[in-house]
Task: structure prediction
Amino acid sequence: MSDPRAHARELARESIARVDLTDWFERLYSASERDGFRISWVDLEPNPYLAVVARSRRPEDPHGLMRWPLTRTELDEFAAPGLELGRLDEVLEPGDPPIPRFVAEFVGEFAASR
Result:
């Protein structure tokens, strides 16, 4: 495996596209065990990416007991110095009724050096 972090991101993107938000994790661990590569967060280097998956809500919707679900403005608060929004998708997770979710990827300024 030449780039375990890129592989993990690709698996995550594939799962997100299928609106299966956790499948990538099991697939990554299975591939690591089968193919003998180290999982990227075990390499003790900072990861330049932050992924946020949260139930979405409109600003006029009432707050619940917790800060979740998030409005777009609240999601933007995840950005910090050196970390900016790279991608944002709004997806509907299957359900009755369908559950709206934000899937955001924040990218650190040092990601380009990888």
The radius of gyration is 16 Å. Residues 1-44 form one domain. The CA atoms of residues 56 and 72 lie 8 Å apart. The helical segments are 4-17, 23-35, 72-76.
